Automatic annotation (TrEMBL), chain A:
The chain crosses the membrane at residues 37-53, 60-77, 83-106, 113-130, 163-181, 213-237, 249-274, 286-305. Its main location: membrane. The lineage of its organism: Bacteria, Bacillati, Actinomycetota, Actinomycetes, Micrococcales. It comes from the Bacteria. It is a multi-pass membrane protein. One of its GO terms (molecular function) is branched-chain amino acid transmembrane transporter activity. One of its GO terms (cellular component) is plasma membrane. This is Branched-chain amino acid ABC transporter permease.
From TrEMBL, chain B:
This is ABC transporter ATP-binding protein. Pfam families: ABC_tran (PF00005), BCA_ABC_TP_C (PF12399). Residues 3-250 form the ABC transporter domain. GO terms for cellular component: plasma membrane. It comes from Nesterenkonia salmonea.
Length: 346, 271
């Protein structure tokens, strides 16, 4: 096998390296590390949103709600019911997946704008249940003392850096699943549905089933993100399931780039860092961020990573064309990794 | 008989789009469906391929009743189709389009892909090989890395055929494959259709260009206002007085295609 130099691979490695070394660099700044930890839990949920919105093309506005279910499953089970972190984590994933599956059965009967409206209503219902069902969720009093993961051998997760690395493992898994989707038949089926449902079903793709599976998996990831968020924060309130959160997750994804592998993490951390930078402006930060996002939608509707992928694709093609004319004949006609030639650039 | 259609009907509100149509598609042959605009040709296609549910009647494919099956099941059973307005995954490359056709039939799950099981790798390799073979077969291999939206119309039409063939159909239904391409291109497309049949795929097509139909078709079904007015060999159909009255008009071939092709831009046609 020939070692191929891939710009996109190098980019992904750079991001991975930055994330790996962050705790060392931020050793003195626990606050920034905390922001990073929160960001990664959001990013995991954004990877979930990416499956249904990025790949399958369905705008789900219920993901803040699914995140909230994850948050509260972790929060309530580890406090009021004294479950361990790991069993509560498993329960959170299972519960959001099941809720996602059931919600999908209804929501996916609708399309496009109606799907968005339906899922938004669903998100609002989840928020209302969490913020009003005082006997169970403690409503606005919140839940205090959500457990951190129990020690595994020498690993003590009350150390922020250790917890951070645990989160990185989950994040890497989410990114890897997304990468797998990009380069496999499963993902191709979803992307086909996004482009044209009629064409997809004409070639034998079960549109309903694939959407249902995508939505279910998507909800599961949101729940995982929520559960990790609850544990990281220690204290939770109903705001962690609000519709505002849905739109924040959506913004992270759009900034980073839909249907890309690195988009969710880059978009999430970038926007969160901007939030931090504009912290002093408090309520006005959206006035500053608004134009940034509008500019992004106009000039890079495919998101930052989407735009970068597009640029490298064109660059590679130009170079390949130049090589061809220079060599006279196509000497190495195809790169070792055909997936690198992905032209999916939205 | 590969496909048997019996008494197929579809009403939209009070409109009888297709009414009591029966015909057969014989294996290894080319069956053409013709008729004036609004005759119900595309509706008939949509009924056969599961995009519409018939109001009455039955569709049998390989001796199995597939009436009212959803589109994806019909496709999985071995009936592929193209669309009148050429549909492609337009933001993807030509090769990616055909790969999507392979992906549709693949049985590997996300679990296979995540753990890169042998099945997954075998399928990936097979999909890639099949894609290249089909691009070669349809004569568009050189466009494999081009974005579908950017290639010439003729290439798009051929890519749509390659995509449909990637699902390994036994019956391929082409909805106006020659709409909007020049005479030369149409002739070459006729050549391609013959090669498809030589591959062992039965072809059904809706088409307006009589030159193409008369030279290709083994049997022709003529529709008018949703009803079957003739069904037979090209010779039989050509001499059928009802066909002449409803569609061909005074025995002139080729010239009638103009008014029927009005919705499409048909540069160079008949000129």
């Amino acid at each position: 096998m020939k070692l191929t130099f891939s710009i996109r691979g190098v980019g992904a490695l750079l991001v991975a390296a930055a994330l790996l070394f962050a705790p060392l660099i931020l050793a003195e700044q626990n606050y920034l590390l905390r922001v990073l930890i929160t960001g990664i839990t959001y990013a995991i949920a954004v990877y979930g949103l990416n499956i249904i919105l990025g790949f399958t093309g369905q705008l789900s506005l219920a993901h803040g709600g699914f995140f909230g279910i994850g948050v509260y499953t972790m929060g309530l089970l580890t406090t009021d019911y004294d479950w361990s972190f790991w069993s509560a984590l498993l329960a959170a994933i299972v519960l959001t997946t099941v809720v996602g599956f059931l919600a999908g059965l209804l929501a996916l009967r609708t399309r496009e704008a109606y799907f968005a409206i339906f899922t938004m209503a669903l998100g609002l219902i989840i928020y209302m249940v969490i913020s009003r069902w005082e006997d169970v969720t403690h409503a606005y009093s919140g839940v205090l003392g959500v457990k951190l993961p129990e020690d595994i051998g020498p690993l003590d997760f009350s150390e922020p850096a250790t917890y951070y690395y645990l989160l990185l493992v989950f994040l890497a898994a989410a990114a890897y699943v997304t990468y797998t989707l990009r380069v496999s038949n499963v993902g191709r089926r979803l992307l086909a549905i996004r482009t044209s449902e009629d064409l997809a079903s004409s070639i034998g793709i079960n549109v309903g089933l694939n959407k249902q599976l995508a939505f279910t998996a998507s909800a599961g990831f949101a729940g995982l993100g929520g559960a990790l968020f609850a544990s990281a924060e220690g204290f939770i309130g109903p705001n962690s399931s609000s519709i505002d959160l849905t739109f924040e997750l959506l913004m992270f994804l759009l900034v980073g780039g839909v249907a890309t592998v690195m988009g969710p993490i880059v978009g999430t951390l970038l926007v969160l860092m901007l939030f931090e930078a504009f912290q002093d402006f408090q309520a006005y930060r959206f006035i500053l961020l608004g134009p940034v996002i509008i500019a992004l939608v106009i000039y890079a509707p495919q998101g930052l990573i989407g735009r970068l992928n597009q640029l490298t694709f064109y660059w590679k093609r130009r170079r390949a064309a130049a090589q061809k004319t220079a060599a006279g004949a196509p000497e190495q006609n195809s790169p070792a990794d055909p997936h690198d030639e992905k032209t999916e650039v939205r | 008989m590969l496909m048997q259609v019996r008494g197929l009907s579809k009403t939209f509100g009070g409109l009888h789009a297709v009414e009591d149509v029966s015909f057969d598609i014989a294996e290894g042959e080319i069956t053409a469906i013709i008729g004036p605009n609004g005759a119900g040709k595309s509706t008939l296609f949509n009924l056969i391929t599961g995009f519409y549910r018939p109001t009455a009647g039955s569709v049998t494919f390989k001796a199995k009743d597939i009436t009212g099956h959803p589109a994806h099941r019909t496709a999985q059973a071995g009936v592929a189709r193209t669309f009148q307005t050429t549909k492609l995954f337009e933001h993807s490359s030509i090769a990616e389009n055909v790969l999507a056709g392979c992906a549709a039939g693949s049985r590997s799950t996300l679990i296979d892909a995540v753990f890169r099981t042998p099945r997954h790798r075998r399928e990936e390799k097979a999909s890639m090989d099949k894609t290249l073979e089909l691009l070669e077969f349809t004569g568009i291999l050189e466009f494999k890395d081009e974005i579908a939206a950017n290639v010439p119309h003729e290439v798009q039409k051929r890519a749509a055929v390659a995509l449909a063939l990637a699902t390994e159909p036994e019956l391929l239904l082409l909805d106006e494959p020659a709409a909007g391409i020049t005479e030369d291109e149409t002739a070459r497309f006729g050549q391609l259709i013959r090669q498809i049949v030589a591959r062992g795929v039965t072809v059904g097509l809706v088409e307006h260009k009589m030159s193409l139909i008369m030279s290709l078709a083994d049997s022709i079904l003529v529709l008018d206002q949703g009803r079957r007015i003739a069904w037979g060999t090209p010779e039989e159909v050509r001499s059928d007085p009802r066909v002449i009255e409803a569609y061909l008009g005074a025995g002139s071939q080729g010239s009638t295609s103009q008014e029927d092709g009005i919705q499409e831009r048909t540069p160079g046609q008949g000129a």
